[in-house]
Amino acid sequence: MGQGKFIVTDTKGNLLFKVKKSHFKVHDQRVLIDAAGNHIVTLKEKMMTAHNRWEVCNGDSSSSKNIVFSAKTSHVIQLKTKLQVFLANNVNEDICDFRVEGSWTESSCVIYAGESSTIIAQMHKKHSVGSLVLGKDKFMVSVYPHVDYAFIVALIVILDEINH
């Protein structure tokens, strides 16, 4: 994703989302845009934090009062991918609302609801025509019923940024 190109299509090749990198802000931001050109969420990395931490805000806002969720690595140094996700109303962050586990280098991650074993989405590298394109890499993402696609895409963008 080094050039800011991140395109999400369905299995038929129809555009679902794209991600734009914004260079005009104090720190880098990513904006998730739907096929109609609407700004869905803005992703911004929090600077000066011990853990790799990102905030995701409604639309094209980057204001902390418009946060939908935040995500952070569970350890400052980690060999395997482990991301904790907290919805905006979870201010204490005692227990995460979602978590991501897996191996980014092997392009295999699972997204769980909270600390449970309930899977809401899975990602793995695909070697044929893909539904998610990260630069030259193609990934297949299986999103379970009643799960917001934009939420899953935002998490994958954060993972990509943390791991590059």
Automatic annotation (TrEMBL):
Family to which this protein belongs: Belongs to the LOR family.
Pfam short name (any one): LOR
Protein name as it appears in the record: Protein LURP-one-related like
